[in-house]
Amino acid sequence: GGSWLTEFSVLTGMASRFFGGMQQFVQVYMAGRIDDAMPAALAQCGYRNVMFYPYLKGFFGSSKFFESVGLKQIFDLKAQKAQSSMEMDSFYYANALEEIAQHKAGSQQPLFVYVQTMGAHWPYDVTYWPERKVAGAPGASAEIHEYLRRLAMSKEDYEGFRAALAQRFPDQRFLIVQYGDHQPLATRAFFGFEQQEIEDINAALPDSSPAFETYFSVNAINFTPPALPQMQVLDAAYLGAILFEQARLPLPDSWRERLALMTHCNGRYAACPDRAAVL
């Protein structure tokens, strides 16, 4: 469940782990109860919001949550004409590029595109796309080798996506905020686990464990964004506020408060020592 825990945090600006034992169900019981989510705030700024989702949109009822927070148009597995729920990242980027082109041809409205990719996702006991010759980690465990192969593919595909945006839309400004939703199961052995699922690992580890650390990055095309916060670790719940700031959009009051909380808690949210401030 690591993916939807992070989706919730990124889209709502609230850390899913702060919901304790109910965190696995937070998308279900919070659907329709949040009117201040990041996509909804973007819609108030005049944005059209679209999402590229690798599963069928009825997966765990996820579309009800996504639509309720402002992602009204969802291109799911069927709409994208995917052969499976796991395609190369270049597949999802190509679909996003075509949608951007169609939108630009008929509208001056700004566009927010939320793309979920699957190239580096589990399982790692199968060699995916063996025809692609990329570096892995020969000599490492089979899972780590395969994961690093997929990561190399994802990096190539992302670089191709950035280049295509710059080439196809030279007069447009783009902000790309990329994040890892959770660590791969391939790293669980580093934290003392063998065959446990992510849900069990989540429950067994403290909030401060490096097992919860992945990455985020910000890239801009045709403009220069402001400097990123000077903090080594940020809770995913702050990523939406950072997106507003990096895009130089007017911050709604609540999202400005999130940035203040981020500074007060040194980038933490669920793990912030001042729980009263978070509440």
Features:
single chain; three-stranded parallel beta sheet; globular; mainly alpha; two-stranded antiparallel sheet; 279 residues
Protein described:
There is one protein chain. The chain has ten helices and five strands. The radius of gyration is 19 Å and the shape is globular. The longest helix has 27 residues, at 142-168. It has 279 residues and is mainly α. The strands form two sheets. A three-stranded parallel beta sheet has the order 2-1-3, with helices on both faces. A two-stranded antiparallel ribbon has the order 4-5. It is 38% helix and 9% strand. The model has no long low-confidence stretch (mean pLDDT 93). Helix 4 links the parallel strand 1 (48-52) and strand 2 (73-75). It has helices spanning 2-12, 26-30, 38-44, 62-68, 89-106, 142-168, 198-204, 239-246, 253-264, 275-278; strands spanning 48-52, 73-75, 111-115, 174-179, 216-221.
Furnish the topology, listing elements before pairings.
Blueprint: H1 2-12, H2 26-30, H3 38-44, E1 48-52, H4 62-68, E2 73-75, H5 89-106, E3 111-115, H6 142-168, E4 174-179, H7 198-204, E5 216-221, H8 239-246, H9 253-264, H10 275-278
Parallel strand pairs: 1-2, 1-3
Antiparallel strand pairs: 4-5
Largest sheet: spatial strand order: 2-1-3
Provide the low-confidence segments as ranges. none
How far apart are the first and last residues' alpha carbons, in Å? 25 Å
Quote the beta fraction: 5-15%
Please tell me how large the radius of gyration is: 19 Å
Q: List the secondary-structure elements in sequence, H or E.
A: HHHEHEHEHEHEHHH
Average predicted confidence as pLDDT: 93
User: Major β-sheet, in short?
Assistant: 3 strands, parallel
> What is the total tally of β strands?
5
**Secondary-structure-derived class:** mainly alpha
Instruction: State the shape.
Output: globular
Helix content: 25-40%
The count of helical stretches stands at: 10
